[in-house]
Write the structure tokens for this entry.
Amino acid sequence: MKHEQLVREFFARNAASSLPEGQDGLDVYYLDAGLIDSFGIVTMISDFESALGITFTAEDMQSYEFQTVGGLIGILDRLAASSAA
Amino acid sequence: MTIVPKDVIFLSESTESCADRWVAMNVFARTSVGLSSEVFELLGRIANDPEAGGEGPFHCWRIEYFSNEAGLLADPSRFRRNVDEWEELCLTRAELIAELKTHCILVDDETAYRKRFKPKRNLLDREHFGNFHQQHGQHMALARRKDPTDWWMRQKFTEDQLSVRPDTLYGAIQSKFLEAYTETRISEGMTVVDLGCGTGVYSNMMARRGANVLGIDPSEEYLNVARANAVPGTRFENMKIGEVGALDKIPASSADMIFMSDALLFYFVPFYPGQNADIHTLLKDIRRILKPGGLFVSMEPHGVFYLMPWLGAVDRPFVVVTEYLNKSFGIVPPLSWLIQQVTRTGFAVTDMREIVPGDYFEKIDPRGYHFASEFPLWHLIEFRPFSS
Ligand SMILES: C[S@@+](CC[C@H](N)C(=O)[O-])C[C@H]1O[C@@H](n2cnc3c(N)ncnc32)[C@H](O)[C@@H]1O
């Protein structure tokens, strides 16, 4: 939940249009939907990394999951868990 | 059916210390794997015999990397030349097939594979190969996290940003050539406009030859560097070149020479999506600003050889060209497009040079030197306006 909130807050601050509530929001392909652009994604990556003390690998960033809001939250959950362990 | 696409070539990389090594290279996808001979043999037979080669274990090597990370003029071949740096893998059959598919040495579905040769949809798109700019942008943003502007300046110029790095082909070709060329073309008191001047290193070179140089660029970041390093006789201004009205402040018939280096190509393959620059607008402005009998000089990456892999022996290079008229990877227009666009606006081509590296470079990078001495990486074209 903590990570979902973090991601939603990021899009609330930076996205061109708003992210729907609930599951609909999680299913959004944020780049395809034009919520953020290529510059935005670079900001997003560094924001999440510094907020959570994690590092995305190139594989994480180019994975299928990374492209949707829900998938992204899943990746944050996994990386944060392994960096805490 | 799993096949080796016809896009794959095999190069022998056996050495005394390490016999029995091959490089399989997909020349369209620009991907490579190092192979032992049992894998080479398996690849030769797999289309007719899906079980060919048995269960392994198999030896192969990870050798692929984004070699232009070292600079836009670094060896673009994308595989490690030094066999000592190859990462050895010992794989089961399933693992081997997966590794070969990752690098497009094997494909399951040729139609799906060919569809991958399209522009990337966004920075995260790994399915589509995209052109060189997109691949480079993706690599810099995601794998290296580098600021592209800063990276570009460092790979081309010396630490102090005052000159072109002599240890790169930029230095050996562009800068070495321009030193001599400006000597013959620039005379005391000439007025020169450098369009897309970037950090102004070539504007300064022309000013040192006695010209009054107006450097124009749309990037404030580059112009800040240009202004900090400006020599007497230069002036730098921010204008959105290629947009209607952008150059109106420059008076008509005011320049003896208009110079562009590594900038005209962006009017054919946009530097970024949605770039708002139009070549007709640019050329109309150039015609207006030039004095009658003035000179328009454009030095650009070579439309055939730029970013093509450097293959063969160090002193006997060859190249495999996968495209020319229809660009999927390339970012430089075919020669006829470039020339026709300009000549249709009322210019004639009066000279063309295909530029090769200075001899000193053989000691610095023999492979780059021999390649670029046979296959020029830049050309320079001189245009003069017809009197209308
Ligand atoms: C590869 S750099 C070359 C800079 C410089 N001429 C040199 O040779 O070092 C390309 C330059 O073109 C500039 N540029 C961008 N858009 C342009 C446009 N529409 N017309 C001309 N130049 C442009 C960039 O800001 C950048 O400084």
